[in-house]
Protein backbone atom coordinates (compact mmCIF):
# COMPACT_ATOMS: atom_id res chain seq x y z
CA UNK A 1 0.00 0.00 0.00
CA UNK A 2 2.76 2.42 0.91
CA UNK A 3 4.36 2.15 -2.53
CA UNK A 4 1.01 2.91 -4.26
CA UNK A 5 0.52 5.97 -2.08
CA UNK A 6 4.00 7.21 -2.92
CA UNK A 7 3.33 6.80 -6.67
CA UNK A 8 0.02 8.67 -6.42
CA UNK A 9 1.71 11.49 -4.51
CA UNK A 10 4.46 11.76 -7.19
CA UNK A 11 1.93 11.95 -10.03
CA UNK A 12 -0.10 14.57 -8.15
CA UNK A 13 2.97 16.72 -7.53
CA UNK A 14 3.92 16.50 -11.25
CA UNK A 15 0.45 17.58 -12.33
CA UNK A 16 0.50 20.53 -9.94
CA UNK A 17 3.90 21.68 -11.28
CA UNK A 18 2.73 21.34 -14.89
CA UNK A 19 -0.37 23.41 -14.09
CA UNK A 20 1.81 26.16 -12.60
CA UNK A 21 4.05 26.24 -15.70
CA UNK A 22 1.12 26.41 -18.12
CA UNK A 23 -0.55 29.17 -16.10
CA UNK A 24 2.66 31.24 -16.17
CA UNK A 25 3.05 30.82 -19.94
CA UNK A 26 -0.57 31.88 -20.49
CA UNK A 27 -0.17 35.05 -18.42
CA UNK A 28 3.05 36.02 -20.25
CA UNK A 29 1.95 35.11 -23.77
CA UNK A 30 2.37 37.95 -26.29
CA UNK A 31 1.08 37.21 -29.81
CA UNK A 32 3.25 38.13 -32.83
CA UNK A 33 1.32 40.98 -34.44
CA UNK A 34 4.14 42.14 -36.68
CA UNK A 35 2.22 41.02 -39.80
CA UNK A 36 -1.27 42.02 -38.64
CA UNK A 37 -1.03 45.73 -39.44
CA UNK A 38 0.35 45.08 -42.93
CA UNK A 39 -2.23 45.44 -45.65
CA UNK A 40 -2.45 43.08 -48.59
CA UNK A 41 -1.02 45.88 -50.74
CA UNK A 42 2.02 46.09 -48.45
CA UNK A 43 2.61 42.36 -48.72
CA UNK A 44 2.24 42.39 -52.49
CA UNK A 45 4.60 45.34 -52.80
CA UNK A 46 7.33 43.62 -50.79
CA UNK A 47 6.92 40.41 -52.75
CA UNK A 48 7.22 42.27 -56.08
CA UNK A 49 10.60 43.83 -55.32
CA UNK A 50 12.38 41.13 -57.32
CA UNK A 51 12.08 39.84 -60.87
CA UNK A 52 13.65 36.46 -60.17
CA UNK A 53 15.54 34.85 -57.34
CA UNK A 54 17.65 37.60 -55.69
CA UNK A 55 21.44 37.29 -55.58
CA UNK A 56 21.34 34.07 -57.57
CA UNK A 57 24.61 34.49 -59.47
CA UNK A 58 28.18 35.20 -58.44
CA UNK A 59 30.22 38.01 -59.92
CA UNK A 60 32.59 35.67 -61.76
CA UNK A 61 29.60 34.23 -63.67
CA UNK A 62 28.71 37.65 -65.08
CA UNK A 63 32.15 39.31 -65.41
CA UNK A 64 33.65 36.59 -67.53
CA UNK A 65 35.52 35.95 -70.81
CA UNK A 66 33.53 35.04 -73.91
CA UNK A 67 36.05 32.39 -75.02
CA UNK A 68 38.94 30.27 -73.69
CA UNK A 69 42.00 29.54 -75.82
CA UNK A 70 44.91 27.11 -75.28
CA UNK A 71 48.00 27.69 -77.44
CA UNK A 72 50.67 24.99 -77.13
CA UNK A 73 53.69 25.31 -79.44
CA UNK A 74 51.57 26.65 -82.25
CA UNK A 75 48.76 24.12 -81.79
CA UNK A 76 45.78 26.31 -80.96
CA UNK A 77 42.50 25.03 -79.55
CA UNK A 78 39.60 26.88 -78.00
CA UNK A 79 36.04 26.78 -76.78
CA UNK A 80 33.07 28.97 -76.04
CA UNK A 81 32.88 30.08 -72.41
CA UNK A 82 30.39 27.72 -70.77
CA UNK A 83 29.83 28.77 -67.17
CA UNK A 84 30.94 25.44 -65.71
CA UNK A 85 34.18 25.48 -67.75
CA UNK A 86 35.03 29.03 -66.69
CA UNK A 87 34.28 28.17 -63.05
CA UNK A 88 36.65 25.18 -63.13
CA UNK A 89 39.57 27.19 -64.43
CA UNK A 90 38.77 30.21 -62.23
CA UNK A 91 38.79 28.02 -59.13
CA UNK A 92 42.55 27.50 -59.50
CA UNK A 93 43.30 31.22 -59.86
CA UNK A 94 40.84 32.68 -57.34
CA UNK A 95 41.67 33.51 -53.71
CA UNK A 96 45.40 33.70 -54.45
CA UNK A 97 47.99 36.47 -54.26
CA UNK A 98 49.94 38.43 -56.84
CA UNK A 99 53.46 38.62 -55.44
CA UNK A 100 55.05 40.84 -58.09
CA UNK A 101 53.88 43.10 -60.93
CA UNK A 102 55.59 44.80 -63.85
CA UNK A 103 54.06 47.25 -66.33
CA UNK A 104 55.51 47.15 -69.86
CA UNK A 105 54.73 49.39 -72.84
CA UNK A 106 55.52 49.11 -76.54
CA UNK A 107 55.04 51.81 -79.16
CA UNK A 108 54.92 49.12 -81.83
CA UNK A 109 53.68 45.52 -81.90
CA UNK A 110 53.53 44.14 -78.36
CA UNK A 111 55.95 41.26 -77.78
CA UNK A 112 56.24 39.50 -74.40
CA UNK A 113 59.77 38.00 -74.26
CA UNK A 114 59.22 35.54 -71.39
CA UNK A 115 55.81 34.25 -72.53
CA UNK A 116 56.23 30.52 -73.11
CA UNK A 117 54.88 28.55 -76.06
CA UNK A 118 52.24 26.98 -73.80
CA UNK A 119 49.69 29.48 -72.51
CA UNK A 120 45.96 30.04 -71.96
CA UNK A 121 43.98 33.06 -73.18
CA UNK A 122 40.93 34.62 -71.52
CA UNK A 123 39.30 36.85 -74.16
CA UNK A 124 36.86 39.53 -73.03
CA UNK A 125 34.63 41.55 -75.37
CA UNK A 126 35.24 44.76 -73.38
CA UNK A 127 38.06 46.31 -71.40
CA UNK A 128 37.84 46.90 -67.66
CA UNK A 129 40.01 47.96 -64.72
CA UNK A 130 42.49 45.23 -63.83
CA UNK A 131 42.15 46.08 -60.14
CA UNK A 132 38.38 45.47 -60.29
CA UNK A 133 38.73 42.11 -61.99
CA UNK A 134 41.43 40.84 -59.64
CA UNK A 135 40.04 42.26 -56.40
CA UNK A 136 36.27 41.99 -56.75
CA UNK A 137 35.73 39.25 -59.34
CA UNK A 138 38.59 36.86 -58.58
CA UNK A 139 39.32 37.84 -54.96
CA UNK A 140 43.05 38.03 -55.68
CA UNK A 141 45.28 40.18 -53.50
CA UNK A 142 47.28 42.40 -55.84
CA UNK A 143 48.86 45.79 -56.19
CA UNK A 144 48.49 46.75 -59.84
CA UNK A 145 48.47 50.07 -61.71
CA UNK A 146 45.38 51.90 -60.54
CA UNK A 147 44.06 53.01 -63.93
CA UNK A 148 45.14 50.07 -66.09
CA UNK A 149 42.41 48.52 -68.26
CA UNK A 150 42.65 45.18 -70.07
CA UNK A 151 40.52 42.89 -72.25
CA UNK A 152 42.80 39.86 -72.58
CA UNK A 153 44.48 37.76 -69.91
CA UNK A 154 47.28 35.30 -70.72
CA UNK A 155 48.27 32.59 -68.23
CA UNK A 156 51.33 30.34 -68.27
CA UNK A 157 53.75 28.58 -65.90
CA UNK A 158 56.88 30.22 -64.54
CA UNK A 159 60.17 28.51 -63.64
CA UNK A 160 59.05 27.99 -60.03
CA UNK A 161 55.92 25.99 -60.80
CA UNK A 162 53.61 28.94 -60.20
CA UNK A 163 51.33 30.79 -62.59
CA UNK A 164 52.24 33.97 -64.40
CA UNK A 165 49.52 36.21 -65.78
CA UNK A 166 49.72 38.94 -68.42
CA UNK A 167 46.90 41.49 -68.65
CA UNK A 168 46.94 43.12 -72.11
CA UNK A 169 45.36 46.46 -72.97
CA UNK A 170 42.71 46.77 -75.67
CA UNK A 171 45.03 48.68 -78.02
CA UNK A 172 47.66 45.90 -77.63
CA UNK A 173 50.44 48.27 -76.59
CA UNK A 174 50.56 47.72 -72.81
CA UNK A 175 50.80 44.67 -70.60
CA UNK A 176 50.98 44.12 -66.84
CA UNK A 177 52.94 41.02 -65.90
CA UNK A 178 51.90 39.39 -62.61
CA UNK A 179 53.46 36.55 -60.64
CA UNK A 180 50.77 34.50 -58.90
CA UNK A 181 50.84 32.18 -55.89
CA UNK A 182 48.52 29.75 -57.74
CA UNK A 183 49.81 26.24 -58.46
CA UNK A 184 50.73 25.56 -62.09
CA UNK A 185 50.27 21.80 -61.56
CA UNK A 186 46.67 22.19 -60.44
CA UNK A 187 46.02 24.58 -63.33
CA UNK A 188 47.52 22.10 -65.80
CA UNK A 189 45.35 19.25 -64.48
CA UNK A 190 42.21 21.38 -64.92
CA UNK A 191 43.31 22.42 -68.40
CA UNK A 192 43.87 18.79 -69.44
CA UNK A 193 40.20 18.07 -68.71
CA UNK A 194 39.03 21.14 -70.63
CA UNK A 195 41.28 20.31 -73.60
CA UNK A 196 39.03 17.35 -74.37
CA UNK A 197 36.17 19.77 -75.08
CA UNK A 198 38.23 22.21 -77.15
CA UNK A 199 38.22 22.42 -80.95
CA UNK A 200 40.87 23.63 -83.42
CA UNK A 201 41.17 27.41 -83.54
CA UNK A 202 43.10 29.65 -85.92
CA UNK A 203 45.29 32.70 -85.33
CA UNK A 204 44.08 35.67 -87.37
CA UNK A 205 46.12 38.79 -88.12
CA UNK A 206 44.11 41.88 -89.07
CA UNK A 207 46.60 44.70 -88.52
CA UNK A 208 50.07 45.51 -87.21
CA UNK A 209 48.88 45.23 -83.61
CA UNK A 210 47.80 41.60 -83.93
CA UNK A 211 50.91 39.97 -85.45
CA UNK A 212 52.37 38.36 -82.32
CA UNK A 213 51.23 35.13 -80.66
CA UNK A 214 50.03 37.17 -77.66
CA UNK A 215 47.91 39.52 -79.77
CA UNK A 216 46.37 37.35 -82.51
CA UNK A 217 42.60 37.15 -82.96
CA UNK A 218 41.50 33.59 -82.16
CA UNK A 219 38.45 31.93 -83.71
CA UNK A 220 37.26 28.42 -84.78
CA UNK A 221 39.25 27.21 -87.79
CA UNK A 222 36.96 24.42 -89.02
CA UNK A 223 33.40 24.38 -90.29
CA UNK A 224 30.87 24.34 -87.47
CA UNK A 225 27.56 22.48 -87.64
CA UNK A 226 25.21 23.97 -85.08
CA UNK A 227 21.53 23.63 -84.31
CA UNK A 228 18.98 26.40 -84.24
CA UNK A 229 16.68 26.74 -81.24
CA UNK A 230 13.34 28.25 -80.38
CA UNK A 231 12.79 30.12 -77.14
CA UNK A 232 9.38 30.75 -75.57
CA UNK A 233 9.25 33.68 -73.15
CA UNK A 234 7.38 34.40 -69.98
CA UNK A 235 6.61 37.98 -68.96
CA UNK A 236 6.96 40.05 -65.82
CA UNK A 237 4.96 43.15 -65.18
CA UNK A 238 5.65 46.85 -65.45
CA UNK A 239 4.48 47.15 -61.83
CA UNK A 240 7.34 44.88 -60.80
CA UNK A 241 9.94 47.12 -62.47
CA UNK A 242 8.29 50.26 -61.09
CA UNK A 243 8.35 48.85 -57.55
CA UNK A 244 12.09 48.20 -57.92
CA UNK A 245 13.09 51.53 -59.44
CA UNK A 246 10.66 54.09 -58.01
CA UNK A 247 10.78 55.04 -54.34
CA UNK A 248 7.18 56.26 -54.26
CA UNK A 249 3.88 55.93 -56.11
CA UNK A 250 3.92 56.87 -59.78
CA UNK A 251 1.67 58.82 -62.10
CA UNK A 252 0.58 56.91 -65.21
CA UNK A 253 0.40 58.80 -68.47
CA UNK A 254 -0.57 57.11 -71.71
CA UNK A 255 0.99 58.17 -74.98
CA UNK A 256 0.72 57.29 -78.65
CA UNK A 257 2.00 54.12 -80.34
CA UNK A 258 1.34 51.91 -77.36
CA UNK A 259 3.86 53.63 -75.08
CA UNK A 260 2.95 54.37 -71.47
CA UNK A 261 4.89 56.82 -69.32
CA UNK A 262 5.30 56.48 -65.56
CA UNK A 263 6.85 59.19 -63.45
CA UNK A 264 7.15 60.79 -60.02
CA UNK A 265 9.47 63.37 -58.47
CA UNK A 266 12.52 61.07 -58.68
CA UNK A 267 12.26 59.28 -62.01
CA UNK A 268 10.52 58.58 -65.31
CA UNK A 269 9.96 55.34 -67.20
CA UNK A 270 8.55 54.44 -70.61
CA UNK A 271 7.08 51.09 -71.56
CA UNK A 272 6.15 50.02 -75.07
CA UNK A 273 3.65 47.18 -75.01
CA UNK A 274 4.53 46.15 -78.56
CA UNK A 275 8.27 45.69 -78.09
CA UNK A 276 7.84 45.05 -74.34
CA UNK A 277 10.85 47.28 -73.74
CA UNK A 278 11.07 49.22 -70.48
CA UNK A 279 13.32 52.29 -70.10
CA UNK A 280 13.92 54.15 -66.85
CA UNK A 281 15.87 57.26 -65.94
CA UNK A 282 16.55 58.53 -62.43
CA UNK A 283 15.82 62.28 -62.29
CA UNK A 284 17.19 62.67 -58.77
CA UNK A 285 20.72 61.82 -59.91
CA UNK A 286 23.13 64.32 -61.38
CA UNK A 287 22.91 65.24 -65.03
CA UNK A 288 25.57 62.77 -66.13
CA UNK A 289 26.11 59.12 -65.30
CA UNK A 290 29.36 57.95 -63.72
CA UNK A 291 32.19 56.88 -66.01
CA UNK A 292 34.33 55.43 -63.21
CA UNK A 293 34.24 51.75 -64.15
CA UNK A 294 35.85 50.68 -60.88
CA UNK A 295 32.60 51.84 -59.27
CA UNK A 296 30.12 51.28 -62.10
CA UNK A 297 30.88 47.59 -62.81
CA UNK A 298 30.47 46.25 -59.24
CA UNK A 299 27.61 48.65 -58.44
CA UNK A 300 25.46 47.74 -61.44
CA UNK A 301 26.15 44.04 -60.90
CA UNK A 302 25.06 44.26 -57.25
CA UNK A 303 21.98 46.28 -58.12
CA UNK A 304 20.73 43.92 -60.84
CA UNK A 305 21.61 40.82 -58.86
CA UNK A 306 19.87 42.10 -55.72
CA UNK A 307 16.47 42.22 -57.43
CA UNK A 308 16.97 39.01 -59.42
CA UNK A 309 17.47 40.84 -62.71
CA UNK A 310 19.83 38.23 -64.17
CA UNK A 311 16.87 36.13 -65.25
CA UNK A 312 18.92 34.33 -67.92
CA UNK A 313 22.63 33.76 -68.57
CA UNK A 314 23.44 37.48 -68.77
CA UNK A 315 27.07 38.56 -68.89
CA UNK A 316 28.80 41.90 -69.21
CA UNK A 317 29.54 42.24 -72.92
CA UNK A 318 30.11 45.89 -73.77
CA UNK A 319 30.50 49.35 -72.27
CA UNK A 320 30.28 52.90 -73.55
CA UNK A 321 33.10 55.00 -72.13
CA UNK A 322 31.44 58.24 -73.25
CA UNK A 323 28.08 57.66 -71.56
CA UNK A 324 29.18 55.27 -68.81
CA UNK A 325 26.55 52.74 -69.90
CA UNK A 326 27.15 49.00 -69.48
CA UNK A 327 25.49 46.33 -71.60
CA UNK A 328 24.80 42.92 -70.09
CA UNK A 329 24.07 40.49 -72.91
CA UNK A 330 22.31 37.13 -72.84
CA UNK A 331 24.42 34.06 -73.61
CA UNK A 332 23.12 30.70 -74.84
CA UNK A 333 25.17 27.49 -74.90
CA UNK A 334 28.17 29.58 -73.88
CA UNK A 335 27.83 31.89 -76.89
CA UNK A 336 26.62 35.53 -77.08
CA UNK A 337 23.24 36.32 -78.62
CA UNK A 338 22.45 39.35 -80.77
CA UNK A 339 19.21 41.13 -81.63
CA UNK A 340 18.67 44.41 -83.49
CA UNK A 341 16.05 45.56 -80.95
CA UNK A 342 18.18 44.75 -77.87
CA UNK A 343 15.77 42.02 -76.84
CA UNK A 344 18.72 40.11 -75.39
CA UNK A 345 20.39 42.87 -73.37
CA UNK A 346 20.21 44.89 -70.17
CA UNK A 347 21.56 48.43 -70.47
CA UNK A 348 22.43 50.12 -67.20
CA UNK A 349 24.30 53.21 -66.05
CA UNK A 350 25.21 54.42 -62.57
CA UNK A 351 25.03 57.83 -60.91
CA UNK A 352 26.69 59.32 -57.85
CA UNK A 353 24.33 57.63 -55.41
CA UNK A 354 22.54 54.89 -57.31
CA UNK A 355 21.05 53.71 -60.57
CA UNK A 356 21.02 56.38 -63.31
CA UNK A 357 19.31 54.53 -66.17
CA UNK A 358 17.98 51.03 -66.77
CA UNK A 359 16.63 49.52 -70.01
CA UNK A 360 15.46 45.96 -70.70
CA UNK A 361 12.72 43.85 -72.25
CA UNK A 362 10.23 42.60 -69.66
CA UNK A 363 10.77 39.02 -70.81
CA UNK A 364 12.60 36.02 -69.47
CA UNK A 365 13.20 32.63 -71.00
CA UNK A 366 10.54 30.10 -70.15
CA UNK A 367 11.73 27.18 -72.27
CA UNK A 368 14.25 26.67 -75.09
CA UNK A 369 13.92 23.73 -77.45
CA UNK A 370 15.50 22.39 -80.64
CA UNK A 371 13.78 24.17 -83.55
CA UNK A 372 13.71 20.97 -85.57
CA UNK A 373 15.48 22.59 -88.51
CA UNK A 374 18.58 21.12 -90.13
CA UNK A 375 21.91 22.05 -88.61
CA UNK A 376 23.48 25.24 -89.92
CA UNK A 377 26.95 24.84 -91.44
CA UNK A 378 29.17 27.84 -90.70
CA UNK A 379 32.45 28.45 -92.55
CA UNK A 380 35.75 28.22 -90.76
CA UNK A 381 37.27 31.54 -89.80
CA UNK A 382 39.81 31.53 -92.64
CA UNK A 383 37.02 31.77 -95.24
CA UNK A 384 35.37 34.52 -93.25
CA UNK A 385 38.68 36.35 -92.96
CA UNK A 386 39.37 36.04 -96.70
CA UNK A 387 35.98 37.37 -97.75
CA UNK A 388 36.32 40.38 -95.46
CA UNK A 389 39.95 41.07 -96.39
CA UNK A 390 39.15 40.88 -100.13
CA UNK A 391 36.21 43.23 -99.90
CA UNK A 392 37.49 46.64 -101.05
CA UNK A 393 34.69 48.41 -99.22
CA UNK A 394 35.73 47.14 -95.80
CA UNK A 395 38.75 48.35 -93.88
CA UNK A 396 39.92 44.93 -92.68
CA UNK A 397 42.38 46.52 -90.25
CA UNK A 398 39.36 47.77 -88.25
CA UNK A 399 38.23 44.20 -87.51
CA UNK A 400 39.03 43.51 -83.85
CA UNK A 401 37.04 40.33 -83.04
CA UNK A 402 35.39 37.41 -84.82
CA UNK A 403 33.18 34.92 -83.03
CA UNK A 404 30.22 32.58 -83.46
CA UNK A 405 27.01 33.52 -81.67
CA UNK A 406 23.27 33.33 -82.10
CA UNK A 407 21.09 35.80 -83.99
CA UNK A 408 17.74 36.23 -82.25
CA UNK A 409 14.89 36.51 -84.74
CA UNK A 410 12.00 37.79 -82.68
CA UNK A 411 8.48 36.57 -83.45
CA UNK A 412 6.01 38.58 -81.36
CA UNK A 413 2.37 37.71 -81.95
CA UNK A 414 0.08 40.34 -80.50
CA UNK A 415 -2.94 39.23 -82.50
CA UNK A 416 -3.53 36.03 -80.57
CA UNK A 417 -3.38 36.21 -76.78
CA UNK A 418 -3.12 32.43 -76.63
CA UNK A 419 0.24 32.45 -78.42
CA UNK A 420 3.28 33.19 -76.27
CA UNK A 421 6.00 35.43 -77.60
CA UNK A 422 8.90 33.43 -78.98
CA UNK A 423 12.19 33.81 -80.81
CA UNK A 424 14.40 31.69 -83.01
CA UNK A 425 18.10 31.46 -82.14
CA UNK A 426 20.13 30.95 -85.33
CA UNK A 427 23.91 30.35 -85.26
CA UNK A 428 25.88 32.99 -87.15
CA UNK A 429 29.34 34.53 -87.39
CA UNK A 430 29.62 37.99 -85.82
CA UNK A 431 32.33 40.55 -86.51
CA UNK A 432 33.47 43.37 -84.24
CA UNK A 433 34.19 46.23 -86.63
CA UNK A 434 35.21 49.70 -85.45
CA UNK A 435 33.97 48.86 -81.96
CA UNK A 436 30.51 47.57 -82.97
CA UNK A 437 29.31 44.01 -83.52
CA UNK A 438 27.76 43.06 -86.90
CA UNK A 439 26.24 39.88 -88.21
CA UNK A 440 28.30 38.24 -90.93
CA UNK A 441 26.44 37.46 -94.14
CA UNK A 442 26.86 33.75 -94.85
CA UNK A 443 26.97 34.49 -98.59
CA UNK A 444 30.42 35.96 -98.20
CA UNK A 445 30.12 39.46 -96.80
CA UNK A 446 29.36 41.23 -93.59
CA UNK A 447 26.33 43.31 -92.71
CA UNK A 448 28.54 46.29 -92.02
CA UNK A 449 27.53 49.82 -92.94
CA UNK A 450 29.90 52.68 -93.59
CA UNK A 451 29.20 56.26 -94.61
CA UNK A 452 30.47 57.71 -97.86
CA UNK A 453 30.22 61.46 -98.53
CA UNK A 454 29.55 62.95 -101.94
CA UNK A 455 30.88 66.36 -102.87
CA UNK A 456 27.44 67.87 -102.31
CA UNK A 457 27.46 66.58 -98.72
CA UNK A 458 24.81 63.89 -99.21
CA UNK A 459 25.56 60.69 -97.28
CA UNK A 460 25.08 57.23 -98.74
CA UNK A 461 24.98 53.91 -96.88
CA UNK A 462 27.04 51.17 -98.47
CA UNK A 463 25.89 47.60 -97.80
CA UNK A 464 28.73 45.15 -98.25
CA UNK A 465 28.38 41.72 -99.82
CA UNK A 466 30.72 39.54 -101.77
CA UNK A 467 28.51 39.77 -104.85
CA UNK A 468 26.87 43.15 -104.51
CA UNK A 469 27.52 46.61 -103.13
CA UNK A 470 24.28 48.50 -102.61
CA UNK A 471 24.05 52.27 -102.27
CA UNK A 472 21.09 53.95 -100.63
CA UNK A 473 20.49 57.24 -98.91
CA UNK A 474 21.05 56.88 -95.19
CA UNK A 475 18.02 57.59 -93.03
TrEMBL record:
Residue ranges of the region described as Disordered: 35-56
Recorded superkingdom: Bacteria
Compositional bias annotation for Basic and acidic residues: 35-45
InterPro entries per the UniProt record, alphabetical: YycH (IPR009996), YycH/YycI_2 (IPR042274)
Residue span, Regulatory protein YycH domain: 6-438
Pfam family, one: YycH
Bias (Polar residues): 46-56
Protein name: Regulatory protein YycH domain-containing protein
Organism: Staphylococcus auricularis
Amino acid sequence: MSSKEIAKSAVLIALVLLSIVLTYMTWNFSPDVSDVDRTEDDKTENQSQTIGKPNNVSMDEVITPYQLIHSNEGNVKGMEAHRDSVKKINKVIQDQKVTHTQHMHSDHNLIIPDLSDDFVVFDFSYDMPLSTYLGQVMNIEARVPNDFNFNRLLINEDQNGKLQMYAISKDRHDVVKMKSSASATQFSDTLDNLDKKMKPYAEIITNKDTVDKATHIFAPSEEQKLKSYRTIYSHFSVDTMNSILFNDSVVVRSAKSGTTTYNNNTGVANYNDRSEKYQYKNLSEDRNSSKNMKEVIPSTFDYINHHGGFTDDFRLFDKDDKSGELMYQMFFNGRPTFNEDDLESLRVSWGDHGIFSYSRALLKTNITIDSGDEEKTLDGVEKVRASLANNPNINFEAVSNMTIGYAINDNPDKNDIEIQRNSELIPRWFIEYKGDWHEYDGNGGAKINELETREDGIYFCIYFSQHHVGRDLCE
